[in-house]
Design a protein that fits this description.
Elements: H1 3-16, H2 20-28, H3 31-56, H4 61-95, H5 100-104, H6 112-123, H7 128-143, H8 150-158, H9 161-170, E1 178-180, H10 181-184, H11 189-197, E2 208-211, E3 213-216, E4 222-228, E5 231-236, E6 257-258, E7 264-270, H12 273-279, H13 286-300, E8 306-311, E9 317-323
Antiparallel strand pairs: 1-7, 2-7, 3-4, 4-5, 5-8, 6-7, 8-9
Length: 339
């Protein structure tokens, strides 16, 4: 991890967890021993604080004991939650460290307002699922500072476990900000309602399309291109496309069709900006989903040549694979009977 990315992580420890070296030493110990030491330390802190309170509030020692125990017990529990969130963030960064570009980009410290809000949410993360969720948020912010706005953090906080599972399952088919319907199938109505209500999915209405755009190669060849972030698919403009169904409603099983503007397109669900940001904390399966999409286009139009492309450092696309088209099957020769 580069100096900038490390600096961002250290700034998170300074804000949420105190000393990084001490935290790492504690993490080396077994989970049971760690929790026991924290609980014992919390109990000792409460007992000493209660003694202090009783000495200064002799008029009502029972009230002093309750007040100090409640206050410092809450403080200790919130710090335990923050420590766990930090632990999950470190584990996530070990599994998926920042790329060279991510590590070198951005400021050396995480945004202070972001850390204030994250600290509040992390302190209330009383379940393992919530701690993991906020740990992934922190890890992604270290990789890509500025990903999580106030609104995105609020959406993360408000998602219940059932909706989170629906969203994660849907994002197995995510390519960029889109969920091609030929991959997801028609999502159940209850799923669409849950994801749109949570602010993760744009209301689909009568259907949404991602269209191909016309372009020209360096050799002057005209072609159609559809891009999903780092991935793109290219087909010849001479390709014969199936028409969209009557009334503008496309068959979701089709990977490609000709839309009302005579451009090729595919039917999709679209993530909101918040949904796209939150998808970044989930396992990235975009490349696999894109290749499955290309495979469905291939199945639907086996006679055309497909070019699979990846984005280059200049912002354009390089062809990384060419799937040659197969000639259409010729009908079996018939025969006639002389009369």
């Amino acid at each position: 991890m580069s100096a900038k990315a490390k600096s961002r992580l250290i700034s998170a420890f300074d804000r949420l967890g105190g000393n990084l070296a001490e935290w790492l030493n504690v993490r080396i110990e077994g989970g049971t021993a760690r929790r026991r030491s924290i609980i014992e330390g919390e109990r000792a802190l409460i007992e000493e604080t209660v003694k202090y309170g009783i000495e200064h509030l002799k008029s009502d020692p029972q009230f002093a004991a309750r007040a100090f125990e409640t206050h410092f017990g809450t403080v200790a529990r919130k710090q335990i939650n923050r420590d766990e969130v930090l632990g999950y963030a470190v584990e996530d960064l070990k599994i998926s460290p920042p790329t060279e570009i991510e590590a070198a980009a951005g400021p050396e410290e995480l945004n202070q307002p972001f850390m204030d809000r994250l600290g509040s949410y992390a302190g209330e993360a009383s379940t393992e699922e919530l701690r993991q969720r906020w740990g992934r948020v922190l890890a992604e912010e270290v990789r890509n500072p500025g990903t999580f706005s106030n609104k995105v953090l609020r959406v993360v906080d408000e998602i219940d476990a059932a909706t989170a599972k629906l969203f994660e399952d849907a994002c197995d088919h995510r390519i960029g900000d889109s969920l091609p319907r030929c991959l997801t199938g028609e999502l159940p109505y209850a799923t669409v309602i849950a994801l749109t209500t949570a602010g993760l999915l744009v209301e689909p209405g009568l259907g949404q399309h991602r269209g191909f755009s016309g372009s020209k190669s360096n050799t002057g060849e005209d072609f159609w291109l559809i891009s999903f972030d780092d991935n793109a698919l290219v087909i010849s403009k001479d390709a014969k496309l199936p028409d969209q169904q009557f009334g503008g409603m496309a068959d979701s099983s089709r990977a490609i069709f000709r839309n009302h503007t005579s451009f090729p397109a595919t039917s999709v669900y679209i993530l909101t900006k918040e949904g796209l940001a939150i998808s970044s904390i989930l396992p990235d399966k975009a490349r696999e989903a894109f290749l499955r999409y290309a495979g469905l286009v291939r199945e639907q139009m086996p006679e055309i040549e497909l070019r699979i492309c990846r984005r280059n450092v200049a912002g354009g696309y390089d062809v990384v694979q060419i799937l040659e088209g197969s000639p259409p099957e010729q009908p079996s020769p018939g025969f006639s009977t002389a009369t």
